[in-house]
Amino acid sequence: MPLELQWAVDERIDGLEELLSRVCEACFALEGVENAGMTVRIASAEEVRTLNREMRNIDRETDVLSFPGASFRPARTAGKDPARVRRLYDPSLGWRNLGDCVISLARAREQAREYGHSLAREIGYLTAHSALHLMGYDHENPRDRAAMRAMEERAMALVSLSRTEESSMTDQQLYDLACEAMHKAYAPYSNFKVGACLLAGDGRVFQGCNIENASYGAALCAERVAVGRAVSEGARSFTAIAVVGSGSQAWPCGICRQVLNEFSDNMRVICGQYGHGFEAMPLAELLPRSFGPENLGVQEDKHGK
Ligand code: THU
Question: What's the first-to-final CA gap in the chain, in angstroms?
């Protein structure tokens, strides 16, 4: 097993060791690094914060910390530097120890909830992220970040943990996240607060709230704030949106229906008034006979990421 799993919390997660071993193996195999391993420590949020402060001078909680055994660089990751990898051989372990990863269990749990997937998947993802750091991958600039993301996705797909396979947000979960977003609305003129939560095809969720302006026409609807957040993070295909209004049931306005139609085949629209439950219906019922990208011969992007 290319992994040493340390538990620094009371809780245990069944099957995690086996899962993380497969994640590590997938990352090392994709990089072409043989006989390698790493340590994964499941720790409390406080321990991670202390380590972050002591080792990196950053006094903040975080989800995962990586401590590489050797310094590789994005331009020369471990696979391109086998001599350096060989020097990491640890006879007591019987493999080349690429370094240590420390994961905050509390943060992993929060993020799992936010993404609507299991805790094991989130820890698996954080382990892949860290394994790649240990091999010299980084996300300091857009090019390196894209290379790292692509490796993460390939590793997760290899162990059948890709988001598409696992994501299953219920209407209630999406609605609850929309309610959470509603509380952040900036609506001093209408006093009508709106929250939205968009579910992307890859399982990620994006929240938004309405943002008004003293120049009234500059107001942004919650739905379009969520779409803006999502598209700028690389998500382009949505399967559902939940919308909640503070004063009445907030079905998306006409402009938002048109914007949602741009990025979905026929997404599910979940809609309610805060404190009064919700209803759901397909976007095509809210925007029948719509005009969309296909009218202009543009189709591929709808099914993009
Ligand atoms: N609003 C939304 O956020 N979404 C809609 O679909 C309808 C309207 C906001 C815009 C404005 O801040 C307030 O509700 C009143 O129109």
Answer: 33
Catalytic residue among 17, 223, 294, 300: 223
Catalytic, 140? Answer: no
If you take atom 13 of ligand 1, which residue's CA is the nearest one?
A: 192
pLDDT in tens, the chain (305 residues): 689 999 999 999 988 998 999 999 999 999 999 999 999 999 999 999 999 999 999 999 999 999 999 999 888 999 999 999 999 999 998 999 999 999 999 999 998 887 767 898 899 999 999 999 999 999 988 889 888 988 998 888 888 776 554 556 788 989 999 999 999 999 999 999 999 999 987 778 899 999 999 999 999 999 999 999 999 988 888 889 999 999 999 899 999 999 999 998 788 899 999 999 999 998 989 999 899 988 888 754 433 33
Looking up tokens 């938002």 gives 256
Which residues have C-beta atoms less than 6 Å from ligand 1?
187, 190, 192, 194, 210, 212, 219, 221-223, 250, 252-253, 256
**Ligand 1 mean position, distance from CA 37 (Å):** 52
Query: Distance between CA atoms of 153 and 166, rounded to whole angstroms?
Result: 13
Going from the Cα of 207 to the center of ligand 1, the distance in angstroms, rounded, reads: 15
Q: Closest residue (by CA) to atom 4 of ligand 1? A: 221
- Dihedral Cα 105, 208, 257, 200, nearest 10 deg: -20
C-alpha–C-alpha distance, residues 232 and 229, integer Å:
5
Q: Do 72 and 63 form a contact (C-beta atoms < 8 A)?
A: no
User: Which ligand 1 atom sits nearest the alpha carbon of residue 210?
Assistant: 3
The alpha carbon of 225 and the centre of ligand 1 are apart by a number of angstroms equal to 11
